[in-house]
Amino acid sequence: MKIFLIGFMGSGKTHWGRKLSAKLGLPFFDLDSVIVEQEQKSVADIFTDNGEEYFRYLEKETLEHISTEQESFILSCGGGTPCFFNNIEFMKKSGKVIWLNTSIDMLTQRLHRERQTRPLISDVVTDEDLRRYIVKKLSERRMYYQQADVTVGEETTNLEELIHILLQNQAPDRLKEEL
């Protein structure tokens, strides 16, 4: 089983990916973390030193590498991953895509605390600017996110509900028996 978690930055992809991995016994990968390890640079430094286009290319290559080298996994994708290089189509062909659809208020609240570690929002000064940025980017990305196989409202989801959704939409009989 290959599960791709997508959604806006701060939507909880890594959080839920780790929880699902532990519960289902599947390997977990965070796409940004894999890239950071490969490049020996933070995402912010990659953006600064090489630009977003370079990062997006690394993202595509790493996504494809993990997908072809691993038989099953849970992968937390970056917020922009589905929006470039036909990545959403690749993910859908390779496994199940779950969109963690988190509210703008929740995203603003979470990203306010993480502003300095997120290269795309590190210059955003006020909370109102941050909210405007989220609304704008989310409207640009929504058409990609909406192509997911499953949409989940992240704020109201718990681990059991997420597993139930997977069982309804994907899990092979072997996994259903184990759960």
Strand content: 5-15%
| Helix segment tally | 9
At the fourth CATH level, what is the homologous superfamily? P-loop containing nucleotide triphosphate hydrolases
> Main β-sheet, in a few words?
5 strands, parallel
CATH class: Alpha Beta
Rg computed from alpha carbons, rounded to a whole number of angstroms: 16 Å
SSE pattern, N- to C-terminal:
EHEHHHEHEHHEHH
Query: N- to C-terminal separation?
Result: 14 Å
Helix % is 55-70%
The figure for the number of domains is 1
Shape: globular
Low-confidence stretches: 171-179
Identify the CATH architecture.
Answer: 3-Layer(aba) Sandwich
At the fold tier of CATH, the topology name is Rossmann fold
Mean pLDDT: 88
The number of strands is 5
Describe this structure in words.
With 179 residues, the protein is α/β, with parallel strands linked by helices. The chain has one domain (2-165): P-loop containing nucleotide triphosphate hydrolases (Rossmann fold). The protein has 9 helices and 5 strands. It has helices at 13-24, 31-39, 43-50, 52-69, 87-94, 104-114, 127-145, 159-169, 173-178, and strands at 2-6, 28-30, 73-76, 96-100, 150-152. It has a 5-stranded parallel β-sheet with strand order 2-3-1-4-5, sandwiched between helices. α3 (43-50) packs across α4. The protein is globular. The two termini are 14 Å apart. Residues 171-179 have low confidence and may be disordered.
